[in-house]
Amino acid sequence: MTDRTPFLLHRRAALMGGAALLATPALLHAKERVVNVYSSRHYDTDRALYDGFTEVSGGVRVRLIEGDADQLIERIRNEGANSPADVLVTVDAARLVRAMDAELLAPVKSQVLESRIPGHLRDPDGHWFGLSKRARVLIVPKDWTPPKPIARYEDIADPAFRNTILVRTSNHVYNISLAGSILAANGEAGLEAWARGVAANMARPPQGGDTPQILAVAAGQGRIAISNTYYLARLLRSAKAEEKAAAETLKPIFPNQADRGTHVNISGAGVVRTAPNREAAQAFIEYLTSIKAQEMFANGNNEYPVVDEVNVVPEVAAWGRFKEDRLNATAYAKNGAQALATMQRAGWR
To answer: What pLDDT, in 10s, does the model give residues 63-119?
Structure first.
């Protein structure tokens, strides 16, 4: 065993014990038999997550309200002190920061969450916590030899990559967050130069989500898709033979491994400031960082768990481990408005 082994064994034991703690009667009072979750995650597999909480908490039901993140935030704001919302769950850091800035989230002090979630994946003051990671990478054909080496996001802005890039519109939050991280690293002038180069190198005008970009690369309509990794993993695990076959011709490039690391966004949650079931709300988020719940995140949507000890699905594991950008999500989220304006000024529509 290495010197690190006792620490990992102790940490794993603590994680496994988290679910048992949730069932302690003193933790959840009799009046708190429900937790109201406002969520912008729309994955059928998340239902198993909520059922799991009901089981380990001794019967606390999850009452789910689904919707667009911005609409849910506005709903909580409009409901005011009478809002039934206990927990807000979103699929990106920017919306969590927006809710925090609107003073809709309560600070939470939790040794469980602080020990399980790395510092750059949670708010320093406990207003929100990352639950899963979404690496934004470059997806290319396995048999393609690029005209120049691709090791960094910055590389694809080179004129050598004319007519190769496929990507969503600039105003999608995944691209805004990526641009926010590049703004933090290279400044506004650096971001504008990069965005101008990317726009000039597009194989077609931005359209559709990440999956169409990946399939378009497989079909030869471009050479580089900017995408979150779980979309490629989803295609690799698809029941449709043609999607699986297309995905098998592609590979991800994890940019910036020699410097700041690959950009990761998060799916995360925060306790609503006016939560009527505050204790259950915190217990719910703590449960979502348990081994069992983190495995569900990894298996259900092919995401990277925030808890390192949890395994990813085989298709994701095959890509190996990568160095991630440890810029706190608050930083790139707060850069969002400036990043979007810069991208659009550079011609990225």
So the answer is: 999 999 999 999 999 999 999 999 999 999 999 999 999 999 999 999 999 999 999
CA–CA distance, 211 with 203 (Å, rounded to integer) = 16
Are 198 and 156 a contacting pair, CB within 8 Å? yes
Q: Retrieve residue 195's tokens.
A: 């965005």
Find the helix or strand (DSSP H, E) in which 167 lies: none
Give the pLDDT score at 24: 44
- For 186, the token pair is 């290279």
> Which tokens is 205 given?
């005008």
Q: Count the Cβ atoms, other than its own, within 10 Å of residue 220.
A: 9
> In this structure, what token pair is assigned to residue 252?
């991800």
How many helices (H) and strands (E) are present in the chain, helices listed first? 14, 9
**Which token pair is 202?**
């597009």
Q: What is the DSSP letter of 349?
A: -
Residue by residue, DSSP assigns 248-277 as TTEEEE---TTTT-B-EEEEEEEEBTT-TT
Burial degree of 41 (CB within 10 A; 0-12, 13-18, 19+)? buried
Residues near 88 by beta carbon (within 8 Å), at least 6 away in sequence: 38, 39, 72, 73, 76, 96, 99, 104, 105, 269, 270, 272
d(CA 286, CA 290): 7
Q: Tokens 């609503």 identify what position?
A: 272
Tokens of 31: 């009046």
Predicted confidence (pLDDT) per residue in 222-233, tens digit: 999 999 999 999
Token pair in block for residue 198: 């990317």
User: Residue 241 corresponds to which amino acid?
Assistant: A
What is the rounded CA–CA span in Å between residue 87 and residue 106? 10
> How large is the C-alpha radius of gyration of the chain?
21
At which residue do the structure tokens 């915190």 appear? 282
Instruction: Kindly state the tokens that stand for 241.
Output: 């033979």
Residue 337: count other Cβ atoms within 10 Å of its Cβ.
11
297 vs 16: CA distance, rounded Å? 16
Q: What is the pTM of this model?
A: 0.88
Instruction: Return all residues near 21 (Cβ < 8 A) that are at least 6 apart.
Output: 27
